[in-house]
Amino acid sequence: MESRNKYVYCRPCDLASQKSIKDFVEQFKKEHKNLHILINNAGVMRCPKSYTQEGIEMQFGVNHIGHFLLTNLLLDVLKVSTPSRIVNISSSAHKRGKIKLDDLNSDKNYEPGEAYAQSKLANILFTKELANKLKGTGVTVNAVHPGIVRTEIMRHMEIYQRRLGKWLVDSLTWIFIKTPRKGAQPVLFVALDPSLDNVTGDYFVNNKIAEVSNEAKNDKIAKWLWAVSEKWTHLNYV
Questions:
Q1: Which residues contact 120 (CB under 8 A, 6 or more apart)?
Q2: Which PANTHER family match (predicted)?
Q3: Which terminus of the chain is more solvent-facing, meaning fewer CB atoms within 10 Å of its CB: N or C?
C-alpha cells in the first residue's frame, strides 16, 4: 500500500483485529526507528451490535482496546524518540459515559449511544493512567475533543439513515458541524504546540484544558480498566 506523497507512510491497521495491530507494529518497527507523535484517531460510533475478531463489543474494542494495544506496542519506539507525544481522540460524550463494571462488554444490554459514551470515557481514563506510568520518560499523552466533525463516523446515527435527515445534516454542516480540516486543528494543536511540551494527562477542548466528568477522575476505575485491558490484549509489561 503506497501513497502519492513520499512523506506519507501508509500501511493497513485494522483496530478491530489484534492480529492486524500486531502485524502493523511489526512492519512499522522494521521500517522505522523513531516515532515522535502517535494520534489514536480510529473510531466507531453508534453501530449495530457487533464484535471485533476477539469477541469484544465493537465500539469498546476499536475505540479503546485497539488503541490500548497499539499504543503499548509502540511505547518502546516512542521512548527512544523523545520528546514524543500521544494524542487520544475522545469526545464530550464521555460525560454521559459510565464504565459498566458488571457488563463492560455490553453482553447483557447493548445500547449504541451508551456503548459509545463508555468507550470515550475509557479514552480519558486510559490517558490519565498512561500519563502516570510515563512520568519522567519524555513521552506525554493527552486527550482531545475535536468537536462534531463531518466524517463517515456519523453513518450509523438514526438521522443519517433517512434521506431528509442526511440532507438536513449536510445543509447545516457549515453552521454546526466542522469540516475534517477544521476538526483536525484541535488535534494538531495538542500534537504540535510547543507550549504543551510538558503537559500530560489532560483533556483539551478548543485548545484549552477542559473539565472532565467525575467518572473520568476516578483513579480506581482507571486502574481497574487498565488491568482488564491488559488481560483482554494479553499485555502486562508496561
A1: 63, 90, 91, 93, 94, 97
A2: PHOSPHATIDYLINOSITOL-GLYCAN BIOSYNTHESIS CLASS F PROTEIN (PTHR43157:SF31), PHOSPHATIDYLINOSITOL-GLYCAN BIOSYNTHESIS CLASS F PROTEIN-RELATED (PTHR43157)
A3: N
